[in-house]
């Protein structure tokens, strides 16, 4: 499988890359291609540190950030790009990580789940909440 991946090396999918669902790896490759900017993977498959039902434990989720200034590729533009990919079942924005970034997963769902997590670790679900915080990043209010 890894020989068909254009933009990532196996070791970039830290922990145990072979436990990451191949369709998620190929999706990340498509996202990287579409954006034109490098992506840094924080974690995909994981064995601890997430919510009890996290899809990281099944290799169906990935946390990452783009290695580009938000002045060149804003968080709102990043969200718009991610939103184009039907395979994504959930999109979470984490503006207060050391490197602000995204969680996506490939959950089976008729309706996509979106959220952001604030500085105190509280989650805010829904497109209205996420849009508000993305606009605040554009205005420099975060």
Characterise the protein shown here:
This protein has helices at residues 22-35, 75-83, 127-139, and strands at 39-43, 61-66, 90-94, 101-105, 113-117, 123-125. It is 25% helix and 20% strand. The chain has a 6-stranded mixed sheet with strand order 1-2-4-3-5-6, covered by helices on one side. The protein is α+β, with helices and mostly antiparallel strands and 142 residues long. The mean pLDDT is 96. It has a single domain, classed as Muramoyl-pentapeptide Carboxypeptidase, domain 2 (2-Layer Sandwich), CATH 3.30.1380.
Domain module count? 1
Alpha carbon gap, first and last residue: 40 Å
CATH class reads Alpha Beta
* Main beta sheet: 6 strands, mixed
Order of helices and strands: HEEHEEEEH
Shape descriptor: globular
Low-confidence runs: none
- For the biggest β-sheet, the strand order reads 1-2-4-3-5-6
At CATH level 3, the topology is: Muramoyl-pentapeptide Carboxypeptidase, domain 2
User: How many β-strand stretches?
Assistant: 6
Helix content: 25-40%
β-strand percent reads 15-25%
* Rg, nearest Å: 14 Å
The CATH architecture term is 2-Layer Sandwich
Mean pLDDT: 96
The computed structural class is alpha+beta
Concise synopsis of the structure shown:
The chain has 142 residues and is an alpha+beta fold. It has a single domain, classed as Muramoyl-pentapeptide Carboxypeptidase, domain 2, CATH 3.30.1380. Helix content is 25%, strand content 20%.
């Amino acid at each position: 499988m890894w020989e068909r991946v254009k933009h990532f090396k196996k070791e970039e999918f830290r922990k145990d890359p072979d436990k990451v669902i191949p369709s998620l790896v190929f999706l990340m490759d498509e996202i990287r291609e579409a954006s034109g900017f490098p992506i840094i993977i924080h974690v995909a498959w994981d064995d601890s540190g997430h919510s009890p039902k996290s899809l990281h434990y099944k290799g169906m989720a990935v946390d990452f950030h783009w290695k580009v200034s938000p002045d060149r590729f804003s968080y709102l533009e990043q969200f718009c790009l991610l939103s184009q990919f039907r395979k994504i079942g959930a999109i979470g924005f984490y503006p207060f990580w050391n490197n602000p970034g995204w969680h996506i997963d490939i959950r089976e769902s008729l309706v996509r789940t979106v959220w952001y997590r604030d500085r105190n670790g509280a989650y805010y679900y829904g497109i209205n909440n996420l849009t508000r915080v993305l606009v605040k990043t554009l205005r420099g209010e975060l």
